[in-house]
């Protein structure tokens, strides 16, 4: 309630400029699409019209959803469509934020501490957890005489999963201060750690986060393409899938245990005992299996974050306040002369609170003092 009441300060002039720029980009992209498809009346916002237009140029798609479009081997029409959609989304988001801006120059979004099935926070009016990295975040700023302390947990879902599964290779990597994505890349690609490239690490991120929650090779292909821009053949994905579970035997055993229980499972609990009921239909076994994996991980991490928020709120100096939280991130606004003190406070309490739930794996939090949200 205090977080909602305090609100997040906004640079309105910059936000309005970003809105104008996004609208101009959207209109330019729409014009280009009409030229490419040779149809001056084409409405790029219409999935029906876009599907028909693609069919006319020989590109058949089941739908115009982003994942389906990205799967097409086309370098002319599809990029133009995605550019139009990205600009449209930026314009809509900027306009929504302007609409929600209050007379005090702040946005007072609403937060629901258990608004998701796993137990994470949700947000609305507006959804402050749906502000992607980029220009829009630069409009979220510290108020006069203040700075932002922006903190987020390092790879918290992987750390929590390693603790839950008892995955010793992952836990040991964290104890040694290694980058788990680099380690996974080295292991599944049969490379020395010092030979792992930036592209290899990007692939490993898709592998770690995709396979953690039970994806098969086919799902990994789609997930890697959509979320990380990594192209994989089905056979390559199958090979990586096999190596991942051969290397991380603790994760494999955890998956096998959950899969064995899934047909008859009625609920799943987080580390604190929070209960999530599961679908009762037998043909929903996959959904029960997925929930048995993601609820303890995402829900457990959420509980550690909430514990940290409560402790932080109780000791903040005068003039400092929580202004937002996004999954594994906590944002505090603090008087400029107290910012470094608050930074140290936030880091200590975030690590200590999460470690209380998952003591078997090292916990790390990255904390920065910034003037705007995007600087972190």
Write structural notes for this entry.
This protein is α+β, with helices and mostly antiparallel strands. 53% of the residues lie in helices and 11% in strands. The strands form four sheets. A four-stranded antiparallel beta sheet has the order 8-9-5-10. A two-stranded antiparallel sheet has the order 1-2. Strands 3-4 form a two-stranded antiparallel sheet. Strand 8 and strand 9 (329-335) form a beta hairpin. The longest helix is centred in the last third of the chain and has 31 residues, at 285-315. It starts with a helix and ends in a 6-residue tail after the last strand. The relative contact order is 0.14.
Strand content: 5-15%
Residue windows where pLDDT falls under 50 for at least 5 positions: none
Rounded Rg: 23 Å
Q: What is the H/E string? A: HEHHHHEEEEHHHHHHHEEHEEHE
Main β-sheet, spatial strand arrangement: 8-9-5-10
Output mean pLDDT: 94
Beta strand count: 10
Separate helix tally: 14
Helix content: 40-55%
What is the global morphology? globular
State the secondary-structure class: alpha+beta
**Biggest β-sheet description:** 4 strands, antiparallel
N→C terminal distance = 25 Å
Observed structural traits:
single chain, alpha+beta, two-stranded antiparallel ribbon, 14 helices, globular
């Amino acid at each position: 309630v205090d977080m909602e009441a305090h609100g997040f300060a906004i640079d309105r002039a910059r936000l309005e400029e970003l809105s104008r720029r996004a609208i101009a980009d959207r209109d330019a992209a729409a014009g280009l699409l009409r030229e490419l498809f040779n149809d001056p009346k084409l409405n790029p916002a219409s999935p029906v019209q876009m599907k028909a237009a693609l069919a006319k140029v020989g590109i058949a798609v089941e739908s115009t959803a982003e994942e389906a479009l990205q799967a097409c081997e086309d370098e002319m029409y599809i990029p133009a469509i995605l550019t139009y959609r990205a600009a449209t989304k930026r314009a809509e988001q900027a306009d929504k934020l302007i609409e929600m801006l209050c007379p005090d120059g702040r946005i007072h979004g609403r937060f629901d501490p258990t608004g998701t099935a796993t137990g994470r926070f949700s947000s609305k009016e507006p959804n402050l957890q749906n502000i992607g990295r980029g220009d829009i975040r630069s409009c979220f700023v510290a108020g006069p005489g203040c700075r932002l302390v922006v903190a987020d947990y390092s790879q918290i879902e992987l750390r929590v999963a390693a603790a839950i599964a008892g995955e010793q290779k992952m836990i040991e990597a964290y104890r040694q201060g290694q980058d788990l994505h680099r380690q996974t890349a080295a292991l599944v690609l049969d490379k020395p750690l010092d030979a792992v490239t930036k592209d290899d690490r990007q692939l490993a991120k898709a592998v770690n986060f995709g396979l953690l929650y039970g994806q098969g090779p086919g799902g990994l292909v789609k997930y890697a393409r959509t979320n990380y821009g990594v192209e994989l053949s089905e056979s390559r994905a199958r090979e990586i899938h096999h190596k991942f579970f051969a290397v991380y035997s603790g994760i494999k055993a955890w998956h096998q245990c959950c899969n064995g229980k899934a047909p008859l499972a009625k609920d799943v609990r987080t580390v604190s005992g929070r209960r999530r009921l599961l679908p009762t239909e037998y043909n929903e076994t996959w959904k029960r299996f997925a929930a048995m994996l993601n609820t303890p991980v995402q829900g457990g991490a959420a509980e550690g974050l909430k514990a940290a928020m409560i402790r932080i709120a109780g000791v903040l100096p005068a003039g400092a306040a929580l202004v937002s939280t996004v999954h594994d991130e906590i944002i505090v606004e603090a008087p400029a002369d107290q910012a470094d003190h608050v930074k140290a406070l936030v880091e200590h309490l975030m690590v200590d609170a999460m470690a209380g739930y998952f003591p078997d794996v090292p916990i790390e939090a990255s904390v920065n003092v910034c003037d705007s949200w995007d600087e972190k």
